[in-house]
Design a protein that fits this description.
Blueprint: E1 3-6, E2 13-16, E3 21-27, E4 38-46, E5 55-67, E6 70-83, H1 97-108, H2 114-133, H3 140-152, H4 162-170, H5 177-183, H6 193-247, H7 251-258
Antiparallel strand pairs: 1-2, 3-4, 4-5, 5-6
Bound molecules: zinc ion.
């Protein structure tokens, strides 16, 4: 049996086969619980990317059902991603460490504390606008306005698209606990795990569209410059060799040229 899978360690898309995937189920013989007859299921998947080769682990607490072939899993009651411990994707170290840390932490606590996760994600988003776009206004709404203005007059950094700003504006209020608490201390703004996830995905998109794209452009430019420099050096060497060859030409031939 095969299935499609994206490795959470390296993001590599691949087809999983029996050679690198295993799932097991063990029924608990501890009596019938409020959830009925239950047991533990787990899956282990090894990444086939040789540069990664990590193992992802997950476990499920499941209701089980008796069949002619014994007990089988029927319905998942609770599930845990055991390894990696977080849904965060690896990020390159040319993205500022403070932004990466906020992102990793936002991912790690997303399910347990979506409100704290969204607050961190929002701080990361604002940090990105400050670092990448050079805009620091105190309030995210004012920074979005400034970014829109710069986009209109053509002074926004490359990679900043109108759609990106719209997306930031759409999720602006999620995780904005501080601002709400100042207005009404008793007002509790709930954040669903899905909302925290929306912020996290926006951050991942901006890491890609802003930092990774800029880094790739810089690398391509550096490669072109290296090629140009090598070409220039080769031409200079070639000219020097010709000059040397002319200087070393025997006199009689030189006389012929002169005559
Ligand atoms: Zn992998």
């Amino acid at each position: 049996m095969t299935h499609q899978w994206t490795c959470p360690f390296c993001n590599n898309h691949q087809v999983v086969t029996d050679a690198n995937f295993q799932s097991s189920f063990r029924k608990f013989h501890i009596g019938k619980s409020t959830k009925g007859e239950t047991g533990l299921a787990y899956t282990a998947t090894r990444c086939v990317n040789p540069d990664c080769n990590e193992v992802a682990l997950s476990a499920q607490y499941v209701r089980s059902r008796s069949t002619n072939n014994g007990w089988v899993p029927e319905q998942t009651i609770e599930a845990w991603q055991l390894r990696p411990g977080s849904s965060s994707k690896p990020q390159p170290d040319y993205i500022p460490a403070a932004l990466r840390e906020d992102y990793f932490e936002a991912c790690a606590i997303r399910s347990a504390s979506p409100k704290a996760s969204a607050t961190l994600a929002r701080r990361c988003l604002q940090g990105m606008i400050r670092d990448f776009c050079g805009i620091a206004k105190g309030r995210l709404i004012d920074e979005i306005k400034e970014l829109n203005k710069r986009l209109d007059d053509g002074s926004a950094p490359r990679g900043v698209e109108p759609e990106t700003i719209e997306a930031i504006d759409a999720v602006r209020d999620i995780g904005n606990i501080g601002a709400h608490m100042e207005k009404d201390i008793n007002l509790i703004i709930d954040v669903e795990p899905g909302e925290a996830q929306a912020l996290i995905e926006l951050i991942e998109m901006l890491f890609e569209e802003w930092y990774v794209a800029r880094h790739k452009r810089e690398q391509r430019l550096a490669a072109v410059k290296t090629i140009a420099a090598e070409k220039k050096a080769a031409i200079a060497t070639g000219r020097a060799q010709i000059a040397k060859a002319v200087a070393a030409t025997p006199d009689d031939e030189g006389d012929v040229i002169e005559g």
